[in-house]
From TrEMBL:
Name by which UniProt lists this protein: Saccharopine dehydrogenase-like oxidoreductase
Family that this chain belongs to: Belongs to the saccharopine dehydrogenase family.
GO cellular component terms, A-Z: lipid droplet; mitochondrion; plasma membrane
Coiled coil, from the record: none
Alphabetical list of Pfam families matching this protein: Sacchrp_dh_NADP
Domain of life: Eukaryota
Length: 427
């Protein structure tokens, strides 16, 4: 069973690494709000990063935002730098779980995973970078299993709503669910909204290096998953979706990769029936299509060259038509924003054999919640950590590198998220 107890030598349930980052700040606030949900109603935690001064400022800000002045004095600060392995080892020795908010993960993530595995700390990240996530699975699964350590990636908006949403849809379906399509829409209030530069940079380097992902995948040497039920038809690159009554495109983020890995784990380790998955995102009307095509063409051209990448990195607002910014969204913008994932599933009732004929039953479910990047992501990350701490017996039998769906399929994570404003429902 996973280690979840603190000891005098390992005093913190949670250490938030990268607490001084844009997202890290909000993870700090979310942890401070949920201390009573820790084991025995308590949570011991600390913040970590490379600048003591910045970390103290983060605690100061959180104390003000939450009206909890005690945060200034009661939360410990650990100085650790990705470039200094000894400092990472010292941090990991003190933590039951490291909540890693230092990205882009392709540059900074592996050293932290390695230090966690070697020093017996579980690791939760909010990466949306398939190359990093799958690379960690390839390189650290067996060591993590030997050490009884859980390395759970993608625990933010990428990809908990999609991955747990598919499992929720499967569990609500009466019979064998064989395919799900999800349609993501986001909305913002009168103040608008945007995504912080940290995610923009992760996306730039991810697209620039996408060929390496294919060679990484070949190293797994996976057999194709058995196909159950009718094959899910792939939609085009741009289409009008009757489901969400707007134009839609294939979702470019990490959700398809994460869901596929979860389905492989559940099929191979738990003899579950695999669910095929297609992910799409709504983009609105004709005006947005023109903007997106223009921005997309510039992005694809520039991302191939180092001078182009520098241009993109220096000018996120210009090249993304305001979707990304160096300052990130304001609190007011976050309050007015929300996301909605609609899942359309199909399958076979118990009376019908999935190897014969077409699916004879459908299901529609919804996962909806607050602003995706800096409200929903901290909630999902912190609830993932609390699930490890509170429900070790419901985790997979051995440690390893897991997707959220693989790690949390048998836990109450969905109930926990429901209580915190990320709501799963059947329509
Ligand atoms: N899954 C999701 O939906 C989701 C949502 C939000 C963010 N994210 C991901 O989270 C990551 C962070 O995003 P962000 O916008 O918060 O970025 P950010 O504001 O740039 O924060 C980066 C953090 O990393 C720290 N850092 C950088 N180099 C370091 C080093 N050598 N040693 C220790 N710490 C170091 C920074 O410390 P300093 O403050 O000292 O510079 C800062 O705390 C990105 O990969 C982003 O894609 C994912």
């Amino acid at each position: 069973m996973a280690r979840v107890e603190t000891t005098p030598n390992r005093p913190y349930h949670l250490v938030i690494f990268g607490a001084s980052g844009f997202t890290g700040q909000f993870v700090v606030e979310e942890v401070a709000r949920t201390v009573s949900e820790g084991p025995n109603g308590n949570l011991k935690w600390a913040v970590a990063g490379r600048s003591k001064q910045k970390l103290e400022k983060v605690l100061e800000q959180a104390a003000g935002a939450l009206s909890k002045p005690e945060l200034r004095t009661e939360v410990d600060v650990i100085v650790a730098d990705v470039g200094e392995p000894d400092s990472l080892a010292a941090m990991c020795k003190q933590a039951v779980i490291v909540l890693n908010c230092v990205g882009p993960y392709r540059f900074f993530g592996e050293a932290v995973v390695k230090a966690c595995v070697e020093n017996g700390a579980h690791h939760i990240d909010i990466s949306g970078e398939p190359q990093f996530l799958e690379g960690m699975q390839l390189n650290y699964s067996s060591q993590a299993a030997e050490k009884g350590v859980f390395i759970v990636g993608s625990c933010g908006f990428d990809s908990i709503p999609a991955d747990m949403g598919v499992l929720y849809t499967r569990d609500q379906f009466r019979g064998t669910l064989t395919a799900v399509e999800s349609f993501l829409t986001v909305s913002s209030g009168p103040e608008g909204g945007c995504i912080h530069d940290g995610t923009w940079q992760s996306a730039i380097y991810g697209f620039a290096d996408s060929q390496k992902l294919q060679s990484l995948r070949r190293k797994f040497n996976h057999k194709p998953l058995p196909s159950v039920g009718s094959k899910l038809r792939r939609r085009g690159a741009l289409f009008f979706s009757n489901e969400i009554q707007q134009y839609a495109v294939p979702f470019m983020g990490s959700d398809p990769s994460v869901v596929k890995r979860t389905q492989r784990f559940l099929t191979e380790e738990q003899q579950a029936s695999p669910v095929q998955y297609g992910a799409y995102a709504g983009i609105g009307g004709i005006g947005n299509i023109i903007k997106m095509m223009f921005a997309g063409m510039m992005f694809w051209f520039l991302v191939k060259f180092s001078f182009g990448r520098n241009l993109l990195i220096k000018n996120p607002e210009f090249f993304s038509f305001g979707m990304f910014s160096k300052a990130g969204p304001t609190r007011k913008q976050m309050e007015g924003s929300s996301f909605q994932f609609s899942f359309y599933g199909e399958g076979y009732t118990d009376e019908q054999d999935p190897s014969q004929g077409k699916p004879n039953a459908k299901i529609r479910t919804l996962v909806q919640g607050p602003e995706a990047g800096y409200v929903a992501t901290p909630i999902a990350m912190v609830q993932a950590a609390l699930t490890i701490l509170n429900e070790p017996a419901a985790l997979p039998k051995k440690g390893g590198v897991y997707t959220p769906g693989a790690a949390f399929a048998k836990t109450t994570l969905i109930d926990r998220l429901n209580k915190h404003g990320i709501q799963f429902s059947v329509i």
